[in-house]
Amino acid sequence: MTKLSTEGLTRRFLGLVAVNDVSFSMAEGEILGIIGPNGAGKTTFINLVSGIVMPSAGRIEYKGKDITYAPAHERARMGIARTYQLIHPLENLTLIENVMVGSIFARGNGLKEARRKAEALCAELGLSGLDRDTTRLTILEIKKMEIARALATSPRSSSWTRSWPASTPTRPRTSSRPSRRSPWSGGSRWASWST
Amino acid sequence: MNRNLSRALAALALSAAVALPALAGAYPLQVARNVMIYMALAVTWDMLLRSGQISFGIAGLFGLGAYAAVLGVLRAGMPAWLSIPFAALFSGLVALLIGFFILRLRAMYFSIVTLALAEIFRIVIHNLHDFTGGPEGVVLQGVIAGGDAGKLYWLALAGLAAALAASWWFENSRIHFALTAIRNNETSAKSSGVDIFRWLLVAFVVTSSIQGLLGGIYAHSFGFATPESVFDANFTLLPLAMALLGGIHSTVGPVLGAVLLGLAAEWLKLKLPYGHLVVYGVIIIVVILFMPQGLLGMARKAARPAERRTA
Lengths: 195, 311
Description:
heterodimer, A: 195 residues, alpha/beta, Rossmann fold, 4-stranded antiparallel sheet, 4-stranded parallel sheet, 31% helix, globular, B: 311 residues, mainly alpha, two-stranded antiparallel ribbon
């Protein structure tokens, strides 16, 4: 059954057509990847689906609902989670608080419940030292923290954009892909890579 | 240890605030009242700042509250005690209406619009001669509580308590997470489910209504309101300087800054009239250039190397 689909999705930035007439569909439990060279429009496409950028034309449907112009925070609550290619830590919150944000606002959890969930997710992803400032984390820890924050929204569809060379020029490319187990079960996801 | 220390300091400050009317005469009480009003304004300014929005409109909402309280008594026949919460309600409602439009603006644009709105409120009140008394202002028959210095002190302390309680609530609830996320990165906040506009509106309305409440308390303490007295730019600039000096993004910072600057200003007023404004200007410049995190930030920085060693 189709869970997420787009129809003729287009986004123009002035004269530049970043995403041109993309029709796409994803079923429950499916794992998809979008691959393309720099500037192909992968990130813009994900921005469109997650509501960070609004489309110039076309339609996005999620669980049978038209979400073409739904605001990003509503999509997060419906179960569309994402992380970013470049790191976006919330700098004045600690590691654990960063993760808590996801379940507080997307799931409406109380602070205690959110902390408990965040601790479980961090353990799952192998994050420790949870009360540290984000300024004391390594790039890899920040990446994991952001994945944990996205997972804390209890997504039904998730996407993560990864481009190690672009975001971390001096770091080795090794990264542990988060375990396929529990937190994801039941959802669908896609990832997009560049180079 | 740190927590015990701050609890002890809070307890000390509270007992000093409660004991003061029994120990001090009318003049120190009047000074304390002024400092408390500015302190509360500094705290509310900081509360909105935690979301990254810099408001220059404190005087506007403060002045509106002052007029709402005085006119509530004169034109609507409210008892004085009721007109003070009415002032809070009125400023809060105005903030809700204008917030709906201006909270879509960011950074400099938001700041400038708040500054302009404060000026517009002043001009409107200045020109609604028949209703507001125009440039001469409005005078009440009598000051609230008969002008008793002790009672006026308690009234100002209650206003401060409202600001501190709200600030504590902002720091210890989901609002803290919402505002900090918005300040750091709106994109991350949105994709984590934070309804940015709604939380900004909550913060703006709550801080504005407390500013209105303080305006009401201020106007009743003197028994009159004129456009020049209650929309004075000082009500915007001094709280801002206090919060910057003490340390932004906290409750303690603005409180600390207000005690230092408030007392310094009072002392300077006696030494050289209006000289305190020069000193304020210099302090703002020095703080912004050399200690952007304020006194509290410096204290934290000093404490940090020790932390790292033990970790």
